[in-house]
Amino acid sequence: MADLNANAGVVPQGPKPKKRLSRGNIFLYGTLIVVSLYYLLPLYVMMVTSLKGMPEIRMGNVFGPPLEITYQPWVKAWSEACTGINCDGLSRGFWNSVWILVPSLVLSISIASVNGYALANWKFKGSETFFTVLIIGAFIPYQTMLYPLVIMLRESGDGITWLVSWMNPILEALGMEPFGRIRLMGSLSGLVIVHSIFGMPILTLLFRNYFASVPEELFKAARVDGAGFWTIYFKIMLPMALPIFVVAIILQVTGIWNDFLFGVIYTKPNIYPMTVQLNNIVNSVQGVKEYNVNMAATLLTGLVPLVIYFASGKLFVRGIAAGAVKG
Amino acid sequence: MSYSVEIKKLDLAFGAVKVLQELDLNIHEGEFLVLLGSSGCGKSTLLNCIAGLLEVTDGQIHIKGQNVTWAEPSERGIGMVFQSYALYPQMTVRGNLSFGLKNAKLPKAEIEERVARAAGILQIEALLDRKPGALSGGQRQRVAIGRALVRDVDVFLFDEPLSNLDAKLRVDLRVELKRLHNQLQNTMIYVTHDQVEAMTLADRIAVMKGGAIMQLGSPDEIYNRPRNLYVADFIGSPSMNFLEGQFADGSFRIDDMAMPMTGYEYVEGQPSNRAAVIGIRPEHVVTGELVGNAPLQYTVDVDLVEPMGSDTLIYAKLGQHGFRIRMDGQAIVKAGEALAIGIDPARASLFDKASENRI
Ligand SMILES: Nc1ncnc2c1ncn2[C@@H]1O[C@H](COP(=O)(O)OP(=O)(O)O)[C@@H](O)[C@H]1O
Ligand SMILES: [Mg+2]
User: Fold this and answer.
1) What is the reported pLDDT for B316?
2) What is the CATH classification number for the domain harbouring A245?
């Protein structure tokens, strides 16, 4: 009897552990494997094709590994392939995309995070209405705004030209170059503005919900401690918001990097983003189709979002989860 | 007598919902005032108005003679401690304590000195370089108090600061808070729904209901001379026994019993005859050999006995009416027995049935 009592603590409790290879698990893992093969196979084919020479590709055997590995298609895709008039490969598009991405990212995220913070913590008369309008903005199909934006960019470019024109005599008198005609339409800065505008509703929503989930008493304590709008934003809110910033960065990087339509519409050939140039390389009608170069170019273009995903995977999941649970 | 905080005809509405209405309250210099009331009665709202965290709809708030109705929270000379501690999670304890001082642009040396002094008073020196996440609930609340302490404020505002702590810690910190008040002699306004906290800490208690103050008085007054039925019922555990009857010619009559109210202090002399309610605290009922000395003596039938260790709670019937009696823990009473009890009308409370006010 005494022994029984002594062992009472180690009597197994709770449900029996499930067998690893139950029917459900086989089905689950089977499905997962099939689905991942479905997604990985094209990637594999692209990879091997980009490492083959053209003669080898003509032999058929799409799935076979390269008999003779060559990096020439990658070099050509990056720096030699012709798109329209230029023959400097994707590198030009890559740098264009970088110059579009970085300012858009900084601009849209910094504005949206302050927006979200203000809407969550500094309610003003009509702030809820403002927020509702903004959210509706997220659901309007953006195709309807394409042409109005063309006009707006053109007109505001002229407007800015007019606004700064008073300085021209002064600049001339000082022996400096006067402002010429400032164009937003067909320029990188125009596209940056477009990306920032289109990112605003969803990013503001994201940040507002995150900041609304921060306990209100924390905000009140900071106010009692004499912190103002910006002090609270920079000292209290920002340090707590890293996960949601990661989410916003990933959303914006993939969105802006993969954008094609805005790039075509709001820029012009020598400043086309990488996606547009990729299209021009792959769809070029002159000469033979260089499948290996096309594959390499495609992989190169997809690399940036991929790197972002891998670099921030864990933080991304944490940010999404935080938003989902508390938002 | 100078007032530390004066609240004049304060109105506060959230949209169409009026939470506070024409509220007047004057708080003395160095007083420990407790706002006591059930959840949702507007205690936190009132405290937030005093702190400047809510814009008042109408009325005025003066602190130290200054009209601060529209002043920023940091300009009011108040410090606030919240139920959820509200420590800045990414800052160390030192960072938390010095945040307000840095915002006020105090010189570095003075900041360090003040932080050290507050940490000394609250005995949190060893925790200064930790983050809030690495502190226990009691330690966190101490840091939160420290955050108000370093700023050398005139008025401390507490919003249920002990509610998130477990029972034992709550008692410890309650005692510490009382000691702190004795030491600092600051004005403190303390919100709670816990009457034990209110009774033990307060110089005066303001019992609130529906955004209005039902009674303002010392714990003794609130307990012994509740001004209306609500306060009488709210204060005390187990709560007061109420019996409805008639007041006539200096006696309270119920069924065929008459209780002459000899020794009872009327609010404004002996009132006219009317329907009334008498309130008798379970702990003011005497039993055993004490019954012989009591002015009024009855016999009740015991329904149920709840021994609680330190004392025993008895559910009985006085005539047709349920009646609770609190007895010594040693008392041996069984259900079904008859029990002799004694009541002193001087310790009872009489209320007008219609207006529910004390008479
Ligand atoms: N921001 C708000 N908007 C609308 N109603 C509120 C708001 N804050 C509090 N209330 C309402 O005001 C009343 C008083 O709230 P509160 O002061 O927090 O009560 P207590 O602190 O006494 O529990 C409650 O009925 C609550 O629902
Ligand atoms: Mg409250």
Assistant:
1) 95
2) 1.10.3720.10
